[in-house]
Amino acid sequence: MTMRRDGAWRIAFVGALEREELAEAIAALDGEKTSHAGTPRQAVKLEAVKMLEGHFGAATRALYEAGRAFARSESEGAQEVGLVLLGRMFAHNPEEVTETMLALADSANWEVREWAASALRGVISEDFDSIFETVRAWAEHGSPNVRRAAAVASGSAAGGCTEEQCRRLLRAMTPLLVDDDPYVRKNMGAFAVGDGFLRAQPEMTAAWLGRASSHPRAQWNAAMALSAAEAAKHFGLLSELLVKLAADEGRVVRRAVYRAVLNLAKRVPEEVAPLVEKWKDDPARRHVYDHVAGRL
Fold first, then answer.
1. Angle of helix 110-126 relative to helix 76-88, nearest 10 degrees?
2. What is the 3-state secondary structure (H, E, C) of the chain?
3. How does pLDDT run across 69-91, given as a tens digit for each residue?
């Protein structure tokens, strides 16, 4: 069911806030659940955040307590609203906010996990020194959900970080290059590294990938980073890495190299095609030529 008609949910939500009945406010929010995600639309949740801030006042203790109540409720939509508020007010109680983000980063609901990673990203951007040890610990956490949150949050925060902060984040992410969990590796090379770190610090990230472990998963992540759209903008920095990866004998790495070459060729064919042509007579890299030449 939905309460979207005539803004009824807003009236119920604000009325509940005025009576200090947070459980009623959460129930009004839950009336906006969609069948797709099982939570309200993003616009509805962000509107709820604004109404909470308007009622309790920005960055007040009362707003923090409301965010805490929402985040710790059974409602997944309310948990997401609470994550936004607590992420913005990390300094009010760093230990408690971190504990809450950790619990929700390991939620059974994929969308709640996304909002937890987003909250962590915001804290990295605003209070790097206070949260860095947490990020490093999450990168080695026993739950792949939490490790994945560390990767996604770090990659998306990289654009707002200083050079030294990015360097520290990359060191913290290094163990994830060899992480074999499907959920982690799906989000590591192409997204956290390719779309995140490579965009923010191309030279540093290219060098970091070049030093990656010879472990097959690390090499696969490096190749997947090269498949990201951002890689084409920095092909000069990454061509040496591509040449190295093209000689890898592992089947999994080779498949990622084929993908990277084809994606790069779409964007910078004038640089990729001549390189691949040279591999026609290179025994170690001929397999790449054979696989992609007809598709360039």
1. 0
2. CCCCHHHHHHHHHHHHHHCCCHHHHHHHHHCCCCCCCCCCCHHHHHHHHHHHHHHHCCCCHHHHHHHHHHHCCCCHHHHHHHHHHHHHCHHHCHHHHHHHHHHHHCCCCHHHHHHHHHHHHHHHHHCHHHHHHHHHHHCCCCCHHHHHHHHHHHHHHHHHCCHHHHHHHHHHHHHHHHCCCHHHHHHHHHHHHHHHHHHHCHHHHHHHHHCCCCCHHHHHHHHHHHCCHHHHCCHHHHHHHHHHHHCCCCHHHHHHHHHHHHHHHHHCHHHHHHHHHHHHHCCCCHHHHHHHHHHC
3. 999 999 999 999 999 999 999 99
270 burial class (0-12, 13-18, 19+ CB within 10 angstroms)?
A: exposed
| Listed residue (29, 127, 124, 123) closest to 69, CA to CA | 29
Domain regions of the chain by residue span: 1-92, 128-211, 213-296
How confident is the model over 205-253, as pLDDT tens digits? 999 999 999 999 999 999 999 999 999 999 999 999 999 999 999 999 9
Give the per-residue pLDDT at 222: 97
107 pLDDT tier (thresholds 50, 70, 90): very high
CA nearest neighbour of 192 among 235, 242, 138: 138
